[in-house]
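Re: the request from the purification team.
They wanted to know what the chain is likely to look like in 3D before they choose a buffer screen. I agreed to run a prediction and write the result into the notebook, where they can find it.
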Amino acid sequence: MSLSKPIMNLVASYLQNLYLHPIKTKAITSCVVGSAGSIASQLVAGQSLKLDPVLAFGLYGLLFGGTIPHYFYEILERLFPEDVVAFPLAKKLIFERAIFAPIMQAFSLYTLSRFEGKNHKAAVKQLFSLYYSVLEANWKWLTLFQIINLAFIPPMLRVLFMNLVGFGWAMFIATKRREQSQKKNAGN
């Protein structure tokens, strides 16, 4: 019981901040989750901790990982309202998987490279080398979570839910980017 009170206070504080300051709260949450995913990916791989990827994932989460999905889910609710549109869940899912996910994935890969200090040419090269395999994995592994998100999670908590899923996804992306970088270095 003694542990449950601090946890409940933390959850209550988070929900209050989410209600009062949704964008700031989602941005900070995305920053923490992205950084943690990058750290976990490096630790699981048995590598010494490199700060550049951690900062890149954190900065990406702070600037884009909470804000863009926040507005996307708002737009999605306006485009496909539950009480007006036939099959709103299917339409939301198709829109998210076919339009938003491919654009966001390309933007993420490019931006993470730039935040790590790569120039435009190197970031585009990494984007092209990873994009299709990462997008295919996104469609394969994240579609079920997106169905759960759209069907059962209240709109206010959708970014949080996907951030929690995103911890694993950040580990996957960090691993793919590290493997691609290692292949490149081995070839030189």
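For the purification team: The helical segments are 4-20, 22-44, 51-65, 67-79, 88-115, 120-152, 158-187.
Please add any questions underneath this entry.
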